[in-house]
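Anyone up for a design puzzle?
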């Protein structure tokens, strides 16, 4: 049985790159958390509201089986400047 998945994202993410994995993972039985810095509701590039369930400091690598990093140059630009996010991704990869 699937466990938990995490979508780690930020403002101006590509709408479809966030929405599709969010619902697809739920279809497969995963409990899906969405993490945004500051647990702030943000807007995707076309206008979808991204409502996070977690803030970055709340994340624990061991809680998740799947990590999704949806694209969008602007969202990724903000995320790559956040050392805590980079550290989480590196720990998850390890």
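Challenge accepted. My sequence:
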């Amino acid at each position: 049985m699937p466990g938990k998945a995490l979508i780690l994202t930020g403002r101006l993410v590509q709408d479809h790159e966030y929405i599709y994995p969010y619902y697809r993972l739920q279809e497969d039985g995963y409990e899906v958390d969405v993490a945004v810095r500051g647990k702030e509701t943000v807007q995707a590039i076309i206008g979808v509201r991204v409502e996070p369930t977690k803030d970055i400091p709340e994340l624990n690598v061991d809680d998740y089986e799947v990590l999704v990093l949806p694209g969008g140059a602007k969202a990724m630009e903000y995320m790559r400047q956040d050392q805590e996010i980079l550290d989480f991704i590196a720990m998850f990869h390890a």
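A detail worth pointing out: The first strand starts at residue 4 and ends at 8.
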